[in-house]
Records
---
Amino acid sequence: MQKLLIQGGRPLHGEISISGAKNAALPILCAALLTDESLQIGNIPVLRDIETMLALLNQMGVSVTSDHNAPGITLSAKQLNNPIAPYEMVKTMRASILVLGPLLARVGQARISLPGGCAIGLRPVDQHIKGLQAMGAEISINHGYINATAKKLQGTRIGFDIVTVTGTENLMMAAVLAEGTTILENAAREPEIIDLANCLITMGAKIQGAGTDVITIEGQSSLHGAKYSVMPDRIETGTFLTACTATGGEIRLNNTNPYLLGAVIDKLVEAGAQINVSHNQIHLTMNLQLQSVSLRTAPYPAFPTDMQAQFMALNCIGDGTAIITETIFENRLMHVQELKRMNADIEVEGNTAIIRGIPHLDGAHVMATDLRASASLVIAGLIAHGQTTIDRIYHLDRGYENIEQKLSMLGANIQRIN
Ligand code: UD1
């Protein structure tokens, strides 16, 4: 198994380019299921989760090709002969559930392994199922599989009981081929939902209100092929900004979108960073004493749960005491135990962590437990005195493209070993 070795204590300096957004690319790949014409997608990040989704689509009958002359990859779902998502694939990536809505809409049937609990929480899919049933789908769960059929999905009004990102995306994709109009209320407002909606609109869908909590979709009889480029990854962007705020230094991030990171940038400025943005760049300088920053995660546009672990690492060496409250997932503080092995002073009470800043962390052997927890350990390694070894970095490879190359370009001493 591969590990990362980090010698801490170097400030970050230089510039790198941000990759396409994993959480936008995954639903957009599934949008290819909605048409028998080709969907050409650019700015797809090279990540384990993307490979898993392509393999899943491929075994359903979707052809995946890449051509040196055309950017990105081309998907064609002309023949969909196996609308099944098997357990082996769903268990490695919960976002596999995103095939359910498009399959029901296009071929009227799907058999998807029920995602189990995962490291960060229970994560049920009841809202996805309830919404599809309201649109007329017959759904039963047996032997660990969701078995769904629908003659023709019917547009209707659906109010989510809780705000769910992939739930909103699944129902939006189901609704674009339904008969009549669907109104999604209490919809998630994440920028990745706008990106998916824009891709679907390019394919001929009629969608209004994506990015607000009410989305209206007028069903069409078919969608057509299109070319689309995925938005930049706001969580990768936020992770590098947090890393540099923690280590000190000066970095420029290119090919990103600074306007999707308001809550994160506000907290970094509170921590002492100077940040300047232009339309697709962010420039960060950190040369002040790092201040502790308290935060509470909540759905977009509030502070993202996917940035919570990285800020936990930053707060370990902040001046003062920070309180972090995780409100989205019930078990997303597992990195705390690992940070404590590096000497961090953190107390956990329920879903809240109290972090008392100390002058420095000590390098140690630690273990990644989930994707964003891995990023927090990388940041901790960059600021620690001495060497940090991170095990189980396959979690990191699910969501960060070339992270050690990008950090090396910024001057970090980091290497991958077998
Ligand atoms: C997506 C993101 C993930 C991010 C999360 C929250 C993707 C591929 N993943 O995950 O990176 O951390 O949003 O911003 O985009 N819930 C239910 N019933 C449901 C659906 C969700 O109870 O049917 C609960 C979940 O257990 C969780 C909360 O709702 O507590 C939010 O989950 P959700 O927004 O659905 O997360 P994902 O879409 O899985």
---
Amino acid sequence: MQILKHVMDDVIKRNPNEPEFHQAVEEVLLSLEPVAAKHPEWVKDKIFDKIVEPERQIIFRVPWIDDKGEEHINRGFRVQFNSAIGPYKGGLRFHPSVNIGIVKFLGFEQIFKNSLTGLPIGGGKGGSDFDPKGKSDGEIKRFCQSFMLELNRHIGENTDVPAGDIGVGGREIGYLYGMYKKINNEFTGVLTGKGLGWGGSLARKEATGYGLCYFMNEALKAKGKSFKGANVVISGSGNVAIYANQKATELGAKVVAMSDSNGYIYDSNGINLSTIRKIKEVERKRISEYVKYHPNATYTEGFRGIWNVKCDVALPCATQNEIDENSAKTLIANGCYAVGEGANMPSTMDAVNLFINNKIIFGPAKAANAGGVATSALEMAQNSMRYSWTFEEVDSKLQEIMKNIYEKCSSTASEYGFEDNLVIGANIAGFIKVAEAMYAQGI
Ligand code: NDP
């Protein structure tokens, strides 16, 4: 890094102990060197220095009472990173690993992802270090209500529109929305991922997983390959993983392995998705239960082990940094020719470099998983119109959006002399729209 080195140095100095945030910024800045060389006016106006500093960071106390009457205190976060092209938009994550650095890395990525969708949405992210695992419905409800009691004053349909992420699905969005409505006495599209009967969009729940497969389908097609007949491994067994499995299977692939944070299952007949949904969505149990229903399948402890399974296409859909250098080496040695990131930043920088240098078809998260937020923006549009589109209408818009994102990433990569490097293409294409808006607005 040359022109932008001082920006990276500053980020490290001003945001100590936030390695995930540093990692996300470094990956983007490395890609933006040629843009900085081409646009000295943006360097002079400190657009690069401004874009790495959130517009606003909110940290708050979330007290709640468990079923035994005992008090607990968690920490809530909302980072409103960039509103140059639209209201802040990005999910809420409830997981014990959440801290301000994690929320900033996710919020930073969200700026470029949202820009790539072509829709008018800025970047934000939030969440809490609350652990929903093992909590009763009542405990989840009380936590969500307490969380919204503070968050509500910072959000709004034209200001900031949160959605779900890890640990925040339809149930949690329901509790959060109910509390927002009670406090503000208004029925507006302030959250996305809502239930279908109260402002939600058809195809939102499927959108990230489906969108990932639509994006990868384009990337595979460009190299004369397809999902048809491919063996696919998908990490995670949450929202993104489940619908990635469904769409990949529909497109002719066989998904042979899935996981949760404890371990992974392998089923040579192809994973039975109904069983996964029963275990994860209804019973909320561990993935190890799968072998009780399908004795031919195997369960192995340890979440990284899934990358030892031989496959043609890998779709990491669990969490950040789940594919490290060793896992990437194993995937490549086993003949994997395509990797599509459903999760946010699931590959370490070393892993990404290995994929690019080995000519693996690589779909980076901010492009490949943008279908979720794109459909959230479609939910916002339907809320504003007080109207709803059919599943087919939303799905066809999603397909079009993912195809456009692929084309934008691919053509931008070529334009800057990095043929086939979708990482660089996504970073540059996502950045330019936001930078132009920031420059024009003088902010
Ligand atoms: P869910 O909570 O529905 O599922 C998460 C899955 O990942 C679960 O199977 C979970 O296992 C596993 N997982 C979570 N944390 C870890 C960990 N530290 N180590 C190993 N496995 C883990 O979340 P989503 O499916 O919504 O999100 C998955 C990823 O996709 C995240 O990176 C998210 O940011 C990203 N994403 C999600 C979007 C969406 O629309 N939902 C949009 C764009 C990106 P367990 O059950 O054991 O916790």
